[in-house]
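Hi P.,

Sorry for the delay on this. The queue was packed all week, but I finally got your sequence through. Input first:
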Amino acid sequence: RYEFVVMNFQVNAFDDYNNLDQPLLILLGDKDLNVDINETKESLTKLFRHRSNAQITIIADATHSLLKAKTFNQQSPGLRFWLKLMWAGESALAPALLPVLNDWIHQLKTI
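Then the structure:
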């Protein structure tokens, strides 16, 4: 984890968003241990306030990776984590994730 932080502590992903014109679905897990989702949502809302191509959604009971927080909320996953994830398959996803994705894709079809 230390190496990741050292490599990425100055990275600002917001700069990359300015050049994106395609529809964006930005998902934040409400149990994210890696970023402050309230600060992130506030910053993204300001960034996209004059653009209609972004939807920002907070997924309930979800980790940074949008997995079930109760089972998978760890910052440094080890072998046990990966075994649980492989065993769980799609059921490892936060329950609210797939309905949000489905709705967003359906909305794209109507554009």
